Amino acid sequence: MAAGHNPLEQFQIKTLLPIEAGGYDISFTNSSVFMVTTVAVITVFMLAGARKKALVPGRWQSMVEMSYEAIAGMIRDTVGSGGKKYFPFIFSLFMFVLIANLSGMVPYTFTVTSHIAVTFALAAVVFFGVTIIGFAKHGLGYLKLFAPSGVPLPVLFLLVPIEIISYLMRPISLSVRLFANMMAGHVMLKVFAGFVISLGAILVPLGIFPLAFMVALTGLEVLVAVLQAYIFSILTCIYLNDAIHLH
Amino acid sequence: MPRMRQFSTAALVLTGFFAVAAGQAAHAAEGGLPQLDLTRFPPQLFWLAVTFLLLYLLMSKLALPQVSDILRTREEKIAGDLSRADQLNREADAALKGYEQALAEARAKATEIAAQTRATIQADADARQAEAEARLSAQAAEAEASIRATRDQALSQVREIATDTAVAVVARLLGAQPDGASIDQAVGEELSRRGVK
C-alpha cells in the first residue's frame, strides 16, 4: 500500500524546526503549528469580536458572548458560585479543545487533539488541579470522597477501592475518550477517501458511494468535535464540583 | 422483498468497507501508532504547555474581562433604563392624579359659581318681581281708590239726578211745579230702601 494511503500517516509528527533544550527535544512541529494556530484563532475570535463593545451586539460579538455565557452557565449549573474562580481555565480548556478539534476537520491540517500526549497532558492538569483544590479546601476530609456517608461498613470495603480506582481512572478516561474519538474519526475519513479512489479506479460511478458516506461522516465528525470539547469541559466541571463540595 | 434485499446488500457492502478499513488500519499499525511514539512526546508537551499557558493568560487577562465588561455594562444599562422607566411611570401617575384633582377642584368651583350665579339671578329676579308686584298692587290700589271715588261721586249725584228727573216727570205729568223738598225726601227714602246711599 502506498504511503499516501496510509490512514495513520496524518498523525505523523514532523519536525519543522529542530530545537533542543537541556537534552530535551522541544522542536517546533506540525503539531506545534496547529497549537499556535488554535490559540491565535481563539484570541482573534475573542478579542476582535468584542472589540467594538457594542451595547446591541452584532453577529460576531453575539458569538463571543454566547461562548462566554455557555461556559459561564455550565460552571454555574454544575459547580455553582464556587466555580467562578476557575472560569478562565475551563473557558480556555473548552475553546482550545473545540478549536483544535474543528481545525482538524479542515483538509490537510493536523489534529492536535488526536494525540494521547496532548489529551493526557490536559487531563492530567485537570486531575492534579482538582485533587489539589480538593485537599486545599477540605484537608484530609477530601478522602471522604471515597467513602460516601450512610453506607454500611461491609459495603465500604468493596466501595472504597472501587471509588479510588475510578478516581484514578479519571485522567485516563478523559484523555482516551477525546483522543480515540478524534483519531477514529480521522482514520474513518481517510479510509473512505481511499475508497473513493480505489473504487473509482474500478468503475467511476462506484466512487460516489464512499464519497456520499464521507460527506455524511464529515457532518458527524463536526458534531463529534463539538461534543467532545463539551464533554471534556463538563467532566472537568463535575470533577471540580466534587473537589469543592464533596458529594 | 426487494427493499429488504437492497438493505442487506447495502449492509454487506458497508461491512465490507469496514472490514477493509480495519485491515488497512491494522496493516498501518504494524509500523506503530504515531500517537504512541514516545520520542515525539516532549515537543508536544512543551508546545502544549507554552500555547495553553499563553491562551490562559490571553483569556483571563484580556478577552474574558472585556466580554464580562460588555455584559455588565449592558446589564447595568438595562437595569438603569428600567428604573428610569419606572420612575417616569410614577411621575406620570402623579401628574395624572394631580390633573384629576385639579379637574375635580375646577368642577367643584364651577358648580359653586353656577350655584352662586343662579342664586344671584334668582334674588335679582325675586326683587324685581316683588318690586313689579308692589308697583302693580300700588297701581291697582290707586285705580281701585279712583274707581271708588268716581263711584262714590257718581252715587252721590244719583239722588240729585233722580230728584231732578222726578221733578221733571211730575211737572210734565201734572203740569204744575211740585214741591221740590217733598220729592227729594221721597227719592231719598226710595234710594235708602234699595240700598243706595
Description:
- The complex is a heterodimer of chains A (247) and B (197).
- Chain A is 68% helix and 4% strand.
- With 247 residues, chain A is mainly alpha-helical.
- The longest helix of chain A is centred in the C-terminal third of the chain and has 50 residues, at 153-202.
- Chain B is mostly helical and 197 residues long.
- Chain B is 90% helix and 0% strand.
- Chain B is built from three helices and no strands.
- In chain B, helix 2 runs antiparallel to helix 3 (180-194).
- The model of chain B has no long low-confidence stretch (mean pLDDT 84).
- At the A-B interface, strand 3, strand 4, helix 1, helix 2 and helix 3 of A face helix 1 and helix 2 of B.
Termini separation of chain A: 54 Å
Output the structural class of chain B: mainly alpha
| Total DSSP E strands of chain A | 4
Order of helices and strands of chain A: EEEEHHHHHH
* Multimer state: heterodimer
| Morphology call of chain A | globular
Structural class determined from secondary elements of chain A? mainly alpha
Could you list the spans of chain A in which at least 5 consecutive residues all have pLDDT below 50? Answer: none
Helical residue percent of chain B? over 70%
Instruction: Quote the beta fraction of chain A.
Output: under 5%
What integer value in Å does the Rg of chain A equal? 22 Å
Main beta sheet of chain A? 2 strands, antiparallel
Query: Which consecutive residue ranges of chain B, at least 5 long each, have pLDDT under 50?
Result: none
Helix content of chain A: 55-70%
Helix count of chain B? 3
Major sheet: arrangement of strands of chain A: 1-4
| Alpha-carbon Rg of chain B, integer | 68 Å
Q: How many angstroms separate the termini of chain B?
A: 153 Å
